[in-house]
Write a structure and sequence with these properties.
hpI Integrase, Chain A; 5 strands; mainly alpha; 188 residues
């Protein structure tokens, strides 16, 4: 998801609903989606956050056939963490969504119920698209290497290349070549 899609969607959530249950669910899910977007979290990781010495950490350990992840310090690339007061809200134990099933399944169900999500769903977006938007931001807006982006997202460089390596369109190739040319001129 692009940044403008994320912001537009978050603003559409019914946090001012007259129905107390809808209002409360919207507030909790908005907080969850803000965390996923700002820090590139997997949906499950919103349940494994801790503030240590003023820094936000994810203590989730994902196990797979190729090994396991380690706890990691979370970093926000843009101003969203401070704009949305995310670290303080975690430190103050602001409620996150109640999930009777897995977080990704609960997120999918919640998103399906939001009319503002319809066009995003038709474009192939899922609850992981907040994480994918972070990966895109790493490379397209900040020019970070695969190694650094992988560390920020908490997975291996192989996983990163396999999952995000196909997201290259002609426009991005042209932009990258132009940046490379400017870099060469500056360092010559």
């Amino acid at each position: 998801m692009q940044d403008d899609e994320i912001i537009t969607f978050l603003k559409s959530l019914p946090v001012e609903s007259k129905h107390p249950r809808d209002k409360e669910a919207a507030k909790r899910w908005k907080f969850a989606f803000e965390l996923m977007a700002a820090f590139g979290l997997r949906p499950i990781e919103i349940k494994h956050l801790a503030v240590e010495n003023g820094e936000l950490w994810c203590n989730y350990i994902k196990r797979s056939g190729s090994g396991q992840t380690k706890p990691r310090r979370l970093r926000c690339l843009n101003s969203w963490a401070s704009e949305w007061n995310l670290i303080e809200r975690i430190a103050n134990n602001e409620p996150l969504p109640l999930c009777k099933v897995g977080v990704a399944d609960a997120a999918r169900t919640y998103l399906k119920r939001q009319k503002s999500w319809d066009s995003l769903a038709k474009a192939g977006k899922t609850s992981y698209s907040f994480r994918h938007g972070f990966a895109l931001r790493c490379h397209q807006q900040y020019g970070l290497s695969v190694r650094i982006a992988s560390a920020l997202l908490g997975h291996s460089t192989d996983t990163h290349i396999r999952s995000y390596g196909t997201w290259t369109d002609e426009d991005e190739i042209d932009k990258a070549l132009a940046r490379g040319q400017r870099y060469k001129e500056l360092t010559s």
